[in-house]
Design brief:
single chain; 7 helices; about 45% helix
């Protein structure tokens, strides 16, 4: 008998933050599991790379940020959107165990400023994220440049990402939408950068995960 899925609200802003964290972490961990097989070279090395993977788990890291920096649920979903946008513009970039923590703290820092006039200082974000203020400042600028300063996200896009995220999660289902809400079109959920045919170590063409299409 298949495990029973826990039903979540149809709209992302009604979902409890721990559930959003769990689904986002599950999705990013899938990317990491794939991309950790890609060898780091001079061509794909970025400011987001650490010398070694941090010992803190991704779930604990994001949960720590949420706890001490009061992150909005929309910013958590921004993490996946920013990953998509970064990979669309920079084919060599991958989210791996070496890049994910620095990418996340910079994305949370920039994303919080994109959605609210009230947010934590970079000094506070740096302390929570375990990096120096100078490093976070550089990471934030690097992220903004990678995204071509395309930081804003519409509510419709956030909702589409949330709906797809629930649909592909292993432990959740979503409540039926209200009758007044129509269907939404397809939207990419997260990007995996696949290796080339010559061994699978070098970054190759981007491939959207097949189940990242809504309404299919």
């Amino acid at each position: 008998m298949p495990p029973q899925l826990r039903e979540l609200p149809h709209f992302f802003h009604q979902c409890d933050t721990p559930d959003v964290v769990a689904m986002v972490v599950e999705m990013i961990n899938k990317l990491i599991a794939h991309n950790d097989s890609i060898r780091v070279t001079h061509n794909n090395l970025t400011r987001f790379h650490s010398r070694a993977a941090p010992s803190i788990t991704l779930y604990d890291y994001i949960s720590r940020i949420v706890k001490y920096a009061s992150i909005e649920k929309s910013v958590l979903i921004f993490l996946l959107i920013y990953i998509d946008r970064a990979c669309e513009r920079h084919r060599h970039f991958t989210i791996s165990s070496l890049t994910v923590h620095r990418f996340i703290i910079s994305a949370v820092t920039a994303g919080s400023k994109a959605v609210s006039d009230i947010y934590c200082t970079n000094t506070h974000f740096a302390k929570v994220g375990g990096v120096s203020v100078l490093e976070l400042n550089l990471l934030e600028v690097e992220l903004c440049a990678m995204l071509e300063w395309h930081l804003a996200v519409s509510a419709d896009v956030i909702q589409q990402y949330y709906s797809n995220l629930v649909r592909i999660s292993s432990g959740y289902s979503t409540a039926a939408p209200p009758d007044s809400v129509g269907g939404s079109g397809g939207v990419p959920l997260s990007v995996v950068v696949v290796g080339t045919a010559g061994g699978g170590e070098e970054p190759g063409s981007m491939s959207y995960i097949p189940y990242a299409r809504s309404g299919s």
